[in-house]
Amino acid sequence: MALIEIFGYASALVIGISLGLIGGGGSILAVPVLAYLFSVNEKVATAYSLFIVGASALVGGLKQHFKGYVDWRTAIVFGLPAIIGVTVVRKFVVPALPDVLFALGDFDFTRRMGMFGLFAALMIPAAFSMLKTRKENNNANKGKVTYNYPLILAEGLLVGGITGMIGAGGGFLIIPALVILANVEMKVAVGTSLIIIAFKSLLGFFFGDALTMEIDWIFLALFTGLSFVGIFIGSYLSNFIDGSKLKKGFGYFIFVMAVFIFYMEFFVKQ
Q1: With a threshold of 0.85, does the pTM exceed it?
Q2: Using CA of residue 107, residue 109, residue 112, residue 117, what is the dihedral sign?
C-alpha cells in the first residue's frame, strides 16, 4: 500500500473524528480526500462521497433522534423532493455530462472543473456557516411547525440537485431552510437535517450511481468503516474537548481547502 493511500485512510478516520467532535461538516472532506489521495475521477469521488456522507449523517441523525431532536414529518416533507433531485442528477444528469463542457479558444472547461469548481464554491458558505455562532431560538414558535410547501418543494429539489452534483450533504442550506420555511426550532432543525442528508444521499447513491457505475464495495466499506470508528473516537473525545471552539478552526480549514481545490483544478491541471 502506497504512503499516500495510508494517509488517505488516516484522513477517513480524521473525517469521522471531526464529525464526532463538532457534530457535522467533516464529511465535506470526503471528495478532496478521494480525488487527491486516491486519485479517483470526479464521478466516482462524488458518488462515493454520497455514500460516506449519507452513512455518517445516518449515525448522527439517529443519535439526535434518541435525544428527541428529529421532526420526522418535516424530514419526509423536505426530504422527498431532495431525494428526487439527487437521484435524477446522479442517474441522468451526471452520466450525460461530456468530458469537455465547453471550450474558449485553447481553454477546455472540463466536467471535472465544473463539478469540483462548484464543490469548491459551495465549500465557502459551508465554512462561513461553521464560523457563525448559531442563535438558539427555541421559544418563539415551539410546537407550531408550519410548511410553505411550494418553497419547500423548490428548495428540496435545488438542494437535492446540488448534492447530486457535488457529493456533499448541504446542511448549511437545509438548516436555515427548515427554520425559515417550516418554522422548526434550531436544535430540531440540526437533527432533522442529518436525517434528510442521510436519506437523500444514500437513496441518491443506490438509485443513481449504484445502477450506472462499477462500485468498489470493499474500498467504500473500508473508508466508511474507518469514518465510523472516527465518529466514536470523536464522540468520546467530545467529553474532554469543547467542540464549539474546534468548529471555528475547522471552518477556516474548509475555506483553505476550497482555495486549494480551485487552484488544483483551474491552474495546476492546465
Answers
A1: yes
A2: positive
